[in-house]
Prior knowledge:
Blueprint: E1 30-32, E2 40-42, E3 59-60, E4 79-83, E5 86-90, E6 97-100, H1 101-118, E7 149-152, E8 160-164, E9 168-171, H2 175-184, H3 187-223, H4 227-246
Antiparallel strand pairs: 1-2, 3-4, 4-5, 5-6, 6-9, 7-8, 8-9
Amino acid sequence: MQAETLHCPACGAAAASDATRCEFCAARLKTVACPRCFAMMFVGTKHCSSCGAKADAASSVESAAGRTLSCPRCRAGLEAIAVGSARLKECARCDGLWVDVESFERIVSEREEQSAVLGAPTLLQKAGGAGASGQVRYVPCPECGELMNRVNFARCSGVVVDVCKGHGTWFDRDELRQIVEFIQGGGLSVSREREKQEVEAERRKLKQEQLSASLQNRRLGSTFEPEDRRWGAVSAAGELLSVLLDR
């Protein structure tokens, strides 16, 4: 899609391809709609500008819990939507996404299968999400209200997300797309290989330390008598002294 063809659907003003709101009327220009990469898309576009997939407009769904959750960033109400097979909750104000544990596991599994089909890993550089810059701020889980942990996804993706282990993950604008690109680029395979190498290195280090300790004990044993032998000698000397004094 050419940049000159992008216009605000509300007022018709020209809009930049990376804009999320019209600078003239403040209408929302993008929504999370791509079922393949979860990139932000202009309302009404037919194909994703990031991966080229055919647009499948996100449809609203009823919240299973029957209550409205609040955005942990701006406190606006989250809207339950369906993007492909994924069930998400999005904030229309800051474009953040709340994904429950089961849905995120499904997204990761499906994208890793796509990665295996696509071939050899080609890791992408992190572009920097909305929450990547500025002061670090811990935000509450929309479900339980407890402060979430900040986690570097797969320990090497460079995408830091907010995680509540029991309920789900919060993604600031564009972070889910970055993670999907990381997975499809073979990032999880690289992460597992790194972890394997780290475990092996730690095992070798521990073995070396045990060997060094064993050698040190042997050197000390050749210089000093064992503890039980020394105490046995002291005890025997005490008994002999007692016999001599009795005489």
